[in-house]
Amino acid sequence: MNEKRRAILAAASVMLLAGASPVAGQNRLKIGVIGSGRIGGTLGEYWVRAGHEVVFSAQTIEEVNALVARLNLGPRARAGTPREAAEFGDVVLVSVPYAALPQIGRDLADALEGKVVLDTCNPYPSRDGNMAVEARAKGTGVASAEFLPGVRLVRAFNSVGDVSLRSQANRRPPRVAIPLAADDAQAMAIAARLVEDAGFEPVIVGGLARAKEFDFGTRVYGYPLTARELRRDLGIK
Ligand SMILES: NC(=O)c1ccc[n+]([C@@H]2O[C@H](COP(=O)([O-])OP(=O)(O)OC[C@H]3O[C@@H](n4cnc5c(N)ncnc54)[C@H](OP(=O)(O)O)[C@@H]3O)[C@@H](O)[C@H]2O)c1
Q1: In 3D, which of 73, 60, 22, 64 has the Cα closest to residue 40?
Q2: I need a surface site. Which of 104, 117, 129, 184 has the fewest CB within 10 A?
Q3: What is the CATH number for 105?
Q4: Is cis: bond before 174, omega within 30 of 0?
Q5: What gap in Å lies between CA 29 and CA 26, rounded to an integer?
Q6: CA–CA distance, 59 with 135 (Å, rounded to integer)
Q7: How far away, in angstroms, is 161 Cα from ligand 1 center?
Q8: Is 80 exceeded by the pLDDT of residue 116?
Q9: The pLDDT of residue 19
């Protein structure tokens, strides 16, 4: 285990074991969801059901209104604009086509600054153009951090497909594992807790540079692996 991963893991474990309230003393988190499609809509739903408060958002407010009405989750769920979601959340999930990240990073920089941001976005050249080729070459942990400066970024929920996300949550253990990469230990602890609250098992891989290990094209991408299988395939002890 390298030093950076050891440090992140130790700090995140201490916070989790302490029962932690990752965001100062709160058990119930305020979560903004930017991009409420197959991934963002599903995770937001799970987190409301786990007791958190969620503002769902996308560009098309009518669709978000319809989603919130259909989910019928009560007063802890509401629809808003991406700016409202970014301002509301102590934690913000960004789950949009990769090509939208630069614009979100620019337009919402003030609202997102210093916040924990979970990034599920995967670069697909066929959908996102040339910037996706560059992002793949750099690795998403590095590329997304450039598009979202000033946030406490965590790569999360990018490697498991929406069908598994929907069908495998809270399954009988062993649960499906979600690999995580972040440079900030507190952000990592919050993400790990939100993975558990969504009904999955967090696996801390390391710093953002290691997100590359579970990007598109790796042997773990796209498979609903258990934590043991994921650690084995990534060579994590
Ligand atoms: N589907 C999967 O199996 C899967 C698994 C893991 C990761 N991912 C990745 O996670 C991301 C989301 O995937 P998805 O399948 O959930 O996509 P999706 O179902 O197409 O949903 C995308 C959402 O983002 C919104 N959006 C698009 N541009 C936006 C912008 N500029 N600002 C705010 N919201 C915006 C869309 O609504 P509007 O168009 O109305 O804004 C929609 O609500 C993608 O990068 C994808 O590659 C997908």
Answers
A1: 64
A2: 129
A3: 3.40.50.720
A4: yes
A5: 6
A6: 23
A7: 12
A8: yes
A9: 45
Q: CA gyration radius for the chain?
A: 16
Render 191-225 in DSSP notation, one character per residue: HHHHHHHTT-EEEEEESGGGGGGGSTTSTTTT---
Classify residue 68: in a domain, yes or no.
yes
Residue carrying structure tokens 């979600």: 178
Total-model pTM? 0.94
Q: Which of 46, 60, 95 should be mutated for ligand 1, with most atoms under 8 A from CB? A: 95
Beta strands in 58-214 (DSSP E): 77-80, 91-94, 116-119, 152-155, 177-182, 201-206
Identify the three-state secondary structure at position 226: strand
Pocket test for ligand 1, best of 33, 34, 36, 39 (most atoms within 8 A of CB): 39
**Is the CB of 60 within 6 Å of ligand 1?**
yes
Q: How far apart are CA 71 and CA 149, in angstroms?
A: 33
Phi, psi of 17 (to 5 degrees): -65, -30
Residue 121 CA, closest ligand 1 atom number: 45
Residue 155 has pLDDT above 70, yes or no: yes
Total tally of structural domains belonging to the chain: 1
Distance from Cα 58 to the centre of ligand 1, integer Å:
9
| Percentage helix, strand, coil for the chain under 3-state DSSP, each rounded to 5 | 45, 20, 35
Q: For residue 62, is it within any domain?
A: yes
